Amino acid sequence: MSNGGMHPHPEALYYHIAVDALQSAKTEKDEFRRKQCVTTALVFAALCLESFINQEYFSHSETAKVLQENDRFPIESKWLMLPLLLGSNQTFDKGKHPYSIFQELVSTRNNRLVHFKPNKEKVISSEKFGKEYFGELAGNVNLAKKYVKYVGDMIVELNRLTHGKTNVPLFFEGQKYMSRVWSSATSLNENI
Q1: Helix %, strand %, coil % of the chain (to 5)
Q2: DSSP helix/strand/coil, 95
Q3: pLDDT at 192
Q4: Which range is most confident: 119-128, 156-165, 176-185?
Q5: What is the pTM of this model?
Q6: For helices 61-69 and 75-85, what crossing angle results, to 10°?
Q7: What pLDDT, on a 0 to 100 scale, did the predictor assign at position 72?
Q8: Structure-model confidence comparison of residues 71 and 16, the more confident one
Q9: Cα 33 from Cα 42, distance rounded (Å)
Q10: Contact (Cβ atoms closer than 8 angstroms) between residue 177 and residue 170
Q11: Beta-bridge partners for 179
C-alpha cells in the first residue's frame, strides 16, 4: 500500500517507455534486442493513448459518468465520442490522419502483438498479403517511429477538436511528471 509518495501518471510513463524503446531500437545492433525495443515502442504507444483518453474522460464532470457506468467502450469509440460529449460539433475524421494512423496502431497492438495468432501470419511478405510477417513487423523501426509520433498528433488534435477542453501534456516536452493522485486512488480502491 502506498504512503502518499509521488507516482508517475500512467500516460506519461507509457509515453516515455515508448520513446526510450524507440531511441534504443534506432541504434541497437543486436537484431533480437532491436525487435524487443520496436515491439515495446509499439505496445506502449498504444497504452499511452488508451491511458490518456481514460484520464480525459475522468477529468471532466460531463464525461466521467460515461466510463463509470460502462468502461468497456472500445478505445476507438472513446476517442471519437469525447469531442462530441464535450460539446464539439465535430470529431475525428476516421479516414484521415491522425485517426487513421491511430486505428492502425490499435489494430497492430491488438491483433498482431497482444493477441498474436500464428495461423494468421504468413512466412513470406508480399503485397498480396497486405501486411508484414510478424518478424518484419517486430523489427520495423520506421513503423515504431511513425506510431510514437502519432501519439502526440492524436492528443493535439483532440485538444483542437475540444476547443482546448482537453489537456496537451507536458510529457511531450520531455517532462516526467509525477503526482500524489495515484496514492489516494490506490488507497480508496484497497478499501473496497
Answers
A1: 65, 5, 30
A2: coil
A3: 33
A4: 156-165
A5: 0.82
A6: 150
A7: 81
A8: 16
A9: 14
A10: yes
A11: 7
Nearest to 79 by CA among 172, 63, 122: 63
Q: Are 107 and 118 in contact (CB under 8 A)?
A: no
Identify any residues that bridge with 131 across adjacent strands, giving them in sequence order: 126
Q: What is the CB neighbour count within 10 angstroms for residue 169?
A: 19
Extended beta strands in the chain, E state:
7-8, 178-179
Residues in the chain: 192
Exposed e or buried b for every residue in 71-85, given b needs 16+ CB within 10 A?
Answer: eebebbebbebbbee
pLDDT digits (tens, 9 = 90+) for 21-32: 999 999 999 999
* Consecutive H or E run containing 84: helix 75-85
126 DSSP β-pair partners: 131
pLDDT exceeds cutoff 90 at 120: no
Q: How far apart are CA 159 and CA 23, in angstroms?
A: 27
Looking at residue 184, its pLDDT comes to 37
Identity of the amino acid at 170? L
